[in-house]
Design a protein that fits this description.
The structure holds 2 protein chains of 2 kinds. Chain A is mainly α. In chain B, the strands form 8 sheets. Chain B has an 8-stranded mixed sheet with strand order 5-4-8-2-1-14-17-16, with helices on one face. Chain B has a 5-stranded mixed sheet with strand order 19-20-21-23-22. Chain B has a 4-stranded antiparallel sheet with strand order 6-7-3-11, with no helix packed on it. In chain B, a hairpin with a 2-residue loop joins strand 24 and strand 25. The chains are: A mainly alpha, B alpha+beta.
Chain lengths: 310, 654
């Protein structure tokens, strides 16, 4: 069996090979977020564009001026929040649409052409959608129960005179919730792979569970390794962001986009690495016809069994 | 043992109690306590109206306190007094009290829990020469119709106390401390003993001033002497008003500490086994002052921040306003969950921080400077906080913001972290004020404000903005001299708002400030000027070709948007570098300035030196001829990134 490092490295190569999928994701993320942001931008502009006070935001970030801005009746971030949520859900649906094509590419041995990519997207979208509908309650129940346990622990920690206990309990329980969410995510990823591979909806869910039981820790390790690199990228990006001259808005935009590409790419890379693991471990669980695996040498004649009737 | 009849037992108990009380009082009269204040002529600094002698024992498990109090009251009112009201503040923490009613009015979601219940019960009150008057006690509610409020109790004496005479009360009382809802009570093993004893009202302006305990109101008391003995577990580290003059351990694991305070008008104490003590000395102009910091162990790393901020505050107050005459100041770092932080008491105050407080967020410094400032604008200049809270909180907010801006720079005196900045004056004066610019006049009685939020925004933010605007009108030096005079003239007394305003007029030599005071202090007018438009068009625009290359007619239109009349300066800039300043009396609703010249106008700005902190909207004070979208693009960028990131988080789920 390959080492996790092998999956991480080969996952990176696979993600690089199938980069158009990432490009589609990023472009849709940018376009939809831009649509969500336009109204507030216009509101800011109506107050700031002809005011000298705006220089205190342009040449730095004066939080007091920003709060003053939010107090103005023309600026209504609260009213615009639903638009942000709407476009966030729209992006989730776009991601759902693109995922089958991405998965198909990762599972096949070669880069998919655009036509084949979108053909896969269209073919599996319905089943991915219904699978997503099934996963949301699972997330809700598991994270809800953990959240209740977290609240109970936090209220216990709150009684302690040591204020750091509350923080560490909060952080620790969040970590547990994150790991639980990642395990669920891994199951769903494996199920999506199985779905594209076999086309059988319910059987894929079971396959996902069996594969997860088989490789949970290895997959978790792969996922967390790549996450760590993503977090490091994010930290480096934020460090650079703070160092940027405040008036370099264009540069800040580019850096912000780079950070988001790293963030999005991390997830893309995780899927690629998981897909490699799936390719190597799925054959034992899937019908032989669904996975083109090398044929074993033909077995020799069976020895006669004493119990075998002649 | 023969059974003693009930009436006899009561008489016996009263006699023993009186005898013990008299003996105790005599002991303290004879005791030679070291002076708690610096006095150049050896005389008291204040007219000592009251002398409290309290012996109390705190039960740290039940969070209760048993105490006896002896109050000697000097009748300096010039008339006979036969009625005495007492504040019973801890009774404010009861579900039917006025305090909780007002809290529920402002925060309907507030959920009452029994652990928030506080109480102070007078078990017995006797008056020397008049006997046991416990049965005469009657709760009164002078401010509202809430008969269930028990925050003021009144006793009627059988005979009046003549002018110039003294009367001695002996009170046995019992406290139940709440888990801190506001300022006083316990949290974990931390306890803040504030507003904890029956405290007599103030005879002021011809009558008793003893208001009920309200959500927004603070306190008012007469100056005097406090001798307090408090018994607590030996492992508790304690601090209190005044100076510690005695300590003795008992075999049962408790310790009795004795404090002596002079020329103060309240007494508070605090204790916790987790306090770490740090001490330093400030060389004050009245004499050396012991700085004592009681910092919770988890916050010990921030002790130096606290002490540095305290030293800086003491330096500025001493230099700007006058000497601190007490021999000690105690800084208390309260339990972070306790809601006891950021509160002032004579010679003691509570600060506020968290264990993770970053260096760039100056909250511990701001709170320390603010609460120390109350030693002046509450502790010594003892205004009536119930009725004129602005004289305390507002002047102190102005003092705090001025000092923080002086120390750290006006644009980053509150926040300087990861590229984000904020100034203390900008945020804690102007932004507060801008949230409630016209709801209530500054001079409104504290409990009569529209809401708790309006009380805070107006009392703290608007008052500070008014005084910063006076900085701009009179000059900072003049304002400092005015406050210096006000402090020296009225310390250890109870001045009014008019006393303050007249001092500003007198020191500045300005007799024309009344219209400003009428609008800014007594009124609710909103000050808001805007540059409505700037434009340049050819003078001979009607000629073929539009007259380009010739002379431009530049026009600037300034509008008084608010109803506050105030003279303003308008600065107009042109593209050849020329700068023109106009002075407008602001009486009309608008003014138009026209300039025919070869240069085109670039921008116009009302109040270009940023002296009018009272202008509600600073964005409309200026207008540029050409738009510059840099700031809007920057904020759009932040919002875009946030939306992208949020969308990625949501998409992760599916």
């Amino acid at each position: 069996m390959a080492r996790s490092g092998g999956y991480v490295g080969r996952g990176a190569a696979l993600a690089r090979r199938d980069w158009p999928g990432l490009a589609w994701l990023y472009l849709s993320n940018l376009v939809l977020a831009a649509l969500a942001s336009t109204a507030l931008s216009a509101e800011f502009g109506s107050v700031l564009n002809t005011s000298l006070e705006a220089q205190r935001l342009a040449r730095g970030f004066d939080a007091a001026v920003f709060l003053d801005l939010l107090l103005r009746p023309e600026v209504t971030p609260r009213l615009l929040a639903p638009a942000s949520l709407f476009f966030a859900i729209a992006f989730a649906l776009v991601t759902l649409f693109l995922t089958p094509g991405i998965v198909q590419g990762f599972l096949s041995g070669e880069h998919l052409r655009m036509g084949a990519f979108f053909q896969a997207c269209g073919r599996w979208y319905g089943r991915f959608f219904w699978f997503a509908v099934l996963t949301l309650p699972v997330f809700g129940i598991v994270l809800g129960v953990l959240s209740l346990a977290r609240d109970a622990l936090l209220s216990w920690a709150e009684k302690s005179p040591e204020p750091r206990l509350y923080f560490y309990v909060g952080l620790g329980t969040l970590l547990v919730m994150w790991v639980a969410a990642v395990v669920l995510r891994l199951w769903f990823d494996l199920t999506q792979f199985a779905l594209v591979h076999s086309g059988r909806f319910w059987r894929s869910i079971a396959t996902g569970i069996r594969l997860l039981r088989q490789g949970c820790f290895r997959l978790l390790w792969i996922y967390c390794s790549i996450s760590l690199l993503g977090w490091l990228g994010l930290a480096a990006g934020l460090w650079l962001w703070v160092k940027l001259p405040p008036e370099r808005v264009g540069l800040a935009f580019l850096l912000g986009q780079a950070i988001l590409i790293v963030w999005l790419g991390t997830r893309y890379w995780q899927r690629a690495a998981e897909a490699l693991w799936f390719r190597e471990h799925a054959p034992a669980l899937l019908p032989a016809a669904a996975v083109p695996v090398p044929m074993e040498p033909a077995p020799g004649p069976l020895p006669a069994s004493p119990a075998t009737p002649q | 043992m023969p059974r003693v009849p009930r009436a006899h037992s009561l008489l016996l108990a009263a006699a023993i109690f009186l005898a013990l009380g008299a003996a105790r009082a005599q002991t303290w009269e004879q005791a030679v306590n070291p002076a708690a204040v610096y006095s150049a002529d050896g005389k008291p600094l204040s007219q000592r109206v009251v002398h409290y002698t309290i012996e109390a024992k705190y039960n740290e498990k039940a969070h209760t306190l048993d105490a006896t109090e002896t109050l000697v009251y000097r009748n300096l009112t010039g008339r006979p007094l036969d009625t005495f009201p007492f504040h019973m503040y801890l009774n404010g923490f009861q579900p039917q009290s006025t305090w909780v009613r007002e809290l529920h009015r402002d925060a309907p979601d507030y959920a009452w829990e029994e652990k928030y219940r506080g109480a102070v019960n007078i078990q017995q009150m006797t008056v020397e020469g008049m006997g046991d008057l416990t049965g005469q006690l009657q709760f009164i509610h002078p401010d509202d119709d809430n008969a269930d409020d028990r925050s003021v109790v009144e006793v009627k004496l059988p005979k009046p106390v003549p002018p110039g005479a003294s009367v001695t009360f002996h009170i046995k009382f019992y406290d139940v401390f709440p888990e801190v809802v506001a300022r006083t009570g316990y949290m974990h093993d931390f306890v803040m003993g504030a507003q904890w004893f029956p405290k007599v009202g103030v005879w002021w302006h011809g009558g008793w001033n003893c208001h009920q305990f309200h959500l927004n109101t603070e306190f008012f008391g007469d100056f005097g002497v406090y001798d307090v003995q408090l018994t607590l577990p030996q492992n508790y580290v304690t601090g209190a008003s005044g100076i510690e003059v005695g300590s003795r351990n008992h075999p049962d694991g408790t310790r009795t500490l004795t404090w002596h305070g002079e020329d103060i008008h309240d007494f508070a104490w605090t204790a916790s086994p987790r306090f770490v003590v740090a001490e330093a000395t400030f060389p004050g102009s009245a004499g050396p002052v012991k700085m004592r910091a009681l910092v919770l162990r988890p916050h010990a790393a921030q002790t130096q921040r606290y002490l540095t901020a305290l030293r800086q505050a003491m330096y500025y107050f001493d230099h700007w306003f006058g000497p601190y005459p007490y021999k000690q100041i105690t800084l208390v770092d309260p339990d972070p969950d306790s809601r006891a932080g950021g509160m002032e008491y004579p010679t003691l105050f509570t600060a506020d921080t968290t264990w993770w407080m970053p260096r760039g967020l100056l909250e511990p410094e701001v709170v320390t400077v603010h609460e120390y400032g109350h030693q002046y604008w509450y502790g010594m200049v003892a205004t009536n906080e119930f009725e004129e809270a602005w004289l305390d909180e507002g002047i102190n907010q102005y003092s705090e913001t001025s000092i923080m801006d002086e120390l750290y720079g006006p644009d980053r005196s509150l926040l300087d972290l990861w590229g984000a900045t904020a100034g203390d004056t900008e945020l804690f004066a102007h932004t507060f004020y801008a949230r409630s610019p016209d709801t209530d006049p500054i001079t409104r009685k504290a409990w009569q404000f529209m809401t708790g939020g309006a009380y805070g925004n107006v009392t703290y933010g608007k008052t500070a903005s008014v005084l910063h605007t006076l900085d701009g009108m009179l000059g900072k030096e003049t304002m400092r001299r005015a406050l210096h005079t006000y402090f020296l003239r009225y310390r250890f007394t109870h001045p009014t708002g008019e006393d303050f305003l007249k001092t500003v007029e007198e020191v500045s030599g300005r007799k024309d400030l009344r219209p400003f005071f009428d609008q800014a202090v007594y009124g609710t007018q909103v000050l808001d000027y805007e540059v409505l438009s700037v434009s340049s068009s050819p003078v001979d625009w009607w000629k073929p070709g539009g007259g380009l290359g010739g002379v431009w007619r530049n026009q600037v239109l300034v509008h008084r948007k608010g109803d506050f009349l105030f003279p303003v300066t308008v600065e107009v800039r042109f593209d050849d570098g020329q700068v023109v300043r106009e002075n407008w009396d602001g009486k009309d609703r608008w003014v138009r300035y026209t300039y025919d010249q070869k240069a085109k106008v670039v921008s116009a700005e009302v109040d270009p030196d940023h002296l009018i902190d009272l202008d509600r909207d600073l964005f409309n004070n200026s207008r540029t001829a050409k738009p510059d979208a840099t700031a809007a693009r920057k904020l759009h960028n932040y919002w875009l990134l946030f939306n992208q990131w949020m969308a990625q988080i949501v998409s992760w789920l599916i």
